[in-house]
Amino acid sequence: MRLPRLALAPGLLGGRRKVLVGYREAGGEVTGASDAAGGALAGSGHAMLEGVVFDSVHGRAVAGATVFAAGTSRSASTDSLGRFRLEGLLAGEHTIAFTHPSLDTLGIHPPVRRMRVDSAGLAGVRLGVPARRTVVRVVCGERRRGGDDGIATARVIDGATGAAVAGAHVEFSWPRHLDDGRHSADWQAVRRGSTDAEGVIRACGLPREVPITARATDAARQSDAVVFSLDRFGFARVELVLSSSTGEAAQAVPR
After folding, report:
1. d(CA 136, CA 103)
2. CA 38, CA 148: separation in Å to the nearest integer?
3. What DSSP designation does 74 have?
């Protein structure tokens, strides 16, 4: 954004007139406002916003979230206690939002907060992760009642080119055990599906307490097996690499 800088100068017929003395460039955001003499205008001072990002479903703070004020370059990361501080905000109304890798993977956008911060002041805000039932409903298109509610996102890529592979077959499996006092049985539970145009598939109804194995195949290739566990939100993302042999191991995305 390019803003003019004005000053008062003697007029040709007496009095004073405004003249252009230069420009101030500050990217795409307003960082301050001043009068012709250079004094700060009311409401143009900088302020700070402190807060916490909290997962109300599990009753704990969210570390590693990125909090930002929409329309500005101001952002901050939450610490291990979910705390953050946004500094250098222009006093006034701001839309505060946050992102987190687990939610980004699922295409979930947490609700935003509209906040007012005063000049040279300090405001506080509490931001929350969407309710788990909301996430499940948005991603899985259903309301699950009881049972496993974990969600995993897998992306399948071509090992030679790195391009996404649409229509690849993906299988998620995990061990199950039943013992009712009279009978005992072990088996493998399975979820299957195919990747979309972006090489992505999401599997719902996965367990949180046991390791899960993911594999991908297409007409001529297959991936190595990837063993992973769901994160504390009950989500996970993995990348499966298709190759002509199984010597190329796929990797789970670090969290």
Report:
1. 12
2. 62
3. -
Longest dimension (CA), the chain: 107
Could you count the other beta carbons within 10 Å of the beta carbon of residue 17? Answer: 12
List Cβ neighbours of 131 (8 Å cut-off, separation of 6 or more): 56, 57
In this predicted model, which residue has the larger pLDDT, 110 or 105? 110
Residues 241 and 252: beta-carbon distance below 8 Å: no
Check residue 112 and give its pLDDT.
86
Please report the pLDDT score of residue 251 as a whole number: 47
pLDDT (tens digit per residue) in 205-228? 999 889 999 999 998 899 999 999
Phi then psi for 105, rounded to 5 degrees? Answer: -55, -35
- Provide the sign of the torsion angle of the four alpha carbons 159, 161, 162, 164, taken in this order: negative
* pLDDT 10s digits, 73-95: 899 999 999 999 999 888 888 99
Residue type, 232: R
Total Cβ atoms within 10 A of residue 149: 19
